[in-house]
Design brief:
CATH superfamily of the largest domain: Aldolase class I
Distance between the termini: 37 Å
Structural class: alpha/beta
Radius of gyration: 21 Å
Order of helices and strands: HHHEEEEEHEHEHEHEHHEHEHE
CATH architecture of the largest domain: Alpha-Beta Barrel
Number of strands: 12
CATH class of the largest domain: Alpha Beta
Largest sheet: 10 strands, mixed
Shape: globular
C-alpha cells in the first residue's frame, strides 16, 4: 500500500512532515540561506510557535510567505479521554480525509510516555487486538505521526521535556517504514524536539526484513517484539504474520538487532488465560530470552468486546512471572493503564469510553 502524501489541500506540504534538510531545500528555492531552517525548527519545535507571525528573527518577506514552505496546521483534536486518576489520556485526532487515529499519553511517577500510531487500522490481524479487527484503512504520513506528539505535548503543556515515545499504537510500524523513520528523524533532530534515540521504541509483530533494515539505520532505537507465544503452532494462531516469518527467523533477526544496536530487545508477551500462561510456556519463554540480549515485558490481556480471550487472574500473572524470573535475563510486569477509557495495550480502534 502506498503511503499517503503529506500534502495539504493547498498544495503545500505539511510542515510537520518536513525534515530540516528538506526545509533547507525549500528555502533554497526562494533564495533563503540554510540557517533559516535551524531558526524555523527552533521556533516550531523549541518555542512551540504555531504561526509564522511571531518568528521575529525571520525577515518579514519570509514570515509573510511562510505558507509556501509548509502549512503549520495540525489535525483537529476530535476528542480527549482521561482516566479518573488523570494519569492516562487517549487522544483521537481527525485527519484531513476524515480518518480518526488514536494515541495515548501515560504518566507514572518516573516518566511520561507517548504511545504513537503508525497506521489507521492494521493488516496483520493479531487475534486479541482491537486494531486488528479494523483491517488496514491506510498508512499515516510522517506529518501525521509527528502531529500526535505535538497534540499530546500541547495538551500537557510541555511540562516534561524528557518523555519517551513508543510506536505501540494502531498499526504495524515496520509495515509503514519510511514515514515512521522520517518522523523519528524529525523528532530526534537537535533543532526539533531533540529527543534521544534511546527514548524511542519501535514495536513490531515480526516483519523481519524491516527489522534488519532498522538495524542499519545507525540509531540506537529500542526494539520491541510482539511475541505472545513460544511455539510456531500457537503463534500462527495469535500473530498470523508468524506464518510468513516463523519464530526461529524472528529470534535470529532480533539477536542481530540487539548486537548491532547495543540495545536489549524487549519481548512483549500478552498473557491469555489458559492459552499461553502455563508453566511450559514460561520455560520456553525463558529459553528464548536467554538466547538474546533481551528483557521480557509481561502484559495481562486487556479485554476487547467481541473477542473470546480472557484476562488471567492476578495470581496467575504473578505465578507466571515468578516462574520466569530465575530463568530470564530481566522480567517486568506491565501495570495496566487506560483500560477504563479503552486505551490499554490492544484496545485502540474506535472503542468509546462510557459517558
Amino acid at each position: 500500500m502506498k503511503t499517503a502524501s503529506a500534502a495539504t489541500p493547498t498544495g503545500s506540504p505539511n510542515f510537520y512532515g518536513l525534515s530540516r534538510s528538506a526545509l533547507v531545500g525549500r528555502l533554497a528555492v526562494i533564495g533563503e540561506p540554510d540557517y533559516r531552517a535551524d531558526q524555523i525548527f527552533s521556533w516550531v519545535y523549541g518555542r512551540r510557535r504555531r504561526d509564522a507571525a511571531g518568528m521575529t528573527n525571520l525577515p518579514a518577506r519570509l514570515r509573510e510567505s511562510f505558507g509556501s514552505l509548509g502549512e503549520l496546521e495540525l489535525p483537529a483534536v476530535h476528542s480527549v479521554h482521561g482516566t479518573r486518576d488523570g494519569m492516562t489520556h487517549k487522544f483521537v485526532l481527525r485527519l484531513p480525509d476524515g480518518a480518526l487515529v488514536e494515541s495515548v499519553s501515560m504518566r507514572t511517577e518516573k516518566r511520561l510516555t507517548f504511545c504513537l500510531s503508525s497506521q489507521v487500522g492494521c493488516a496483520l490481524g493479531c487475534t486479541f487486538c482491537a486494531t486488528g479487527l479494523m483491517g488496514l484503512k491506510r498508512n499515516l504520513n510522517a506529518a501525521e505521526i509527528v502531529a500526535q506528539v505535538i497534540a499530546m505535548g500541547d495538551h500537557h503543556g510541555w511540562q516534561d521535556d524528557r518523555f519517551n515515545l513508543v510506536f505501540m499504537g494502531m498499526g504495524e510500524p515496520l509495515a509503514n517504514y519510511r514515514p515512521v523513520m522520517e518522523a523519528i528523524r524529525i523528532l530526534h533532530d537537535p533543532f526539533g524536539l531533540n529527543l534521544g534515540a534511546r527514548r524511542i521504541t519501535v514495536s513490531t509483530s515480526g516483519v523481519i526484513p524491516q527489522i534488519r533494515r532498522l538495524a542499519e539505520e545507525g540509531l540506537p532505537l529500542g526494539l520491541a517484539i510482539s511475541l505472545h507465544a513460544t511455539t510456531d503452532e500457537l503463534r500462527d494462531r495469535l500473530v498470523p504474520v508468524n506464518k510468513r516469518w516463523p519464530l526461529a527467523d524472528l529470534i535470529a533477526a532480533a539477536r542481530d538487532y540487539g548486537e548491532k544496536s547495543g540495545r536489549r530487545v524487549t519481548l512483549e508477551y500478552t498473557l491469555l488465560a489458559g492459552v499461553n500462561d502455563r508453566d511450559e510456556d514460561a520455560v520456553r519463554l525463558g529459553a528464548i530470552a536467554r538466547d538474546l540480549p533481551s528483557k521480557v515485558n509481561l502484559i495481562a490481556y486487556n479485554p476487547v468486546p467481541g473477542l473470546a480471550w480472557e484476562r488471567p487472574s492476578p495470581e496467575a500473572v504473578d505465578a507466571f512471572a515468578r516462574r520466569l524470573w530465575p530463568i530470564a535475563p530481566a522480567v517486568t510486569v506491565r501495570h495496566t493503564q487506560g483500560g477504563e477509557i479503552w486505551a490499554a495495550c490492544g484496545q485502540l480502534g474506535g472503542l468509546t469510553p462510557a459517558a
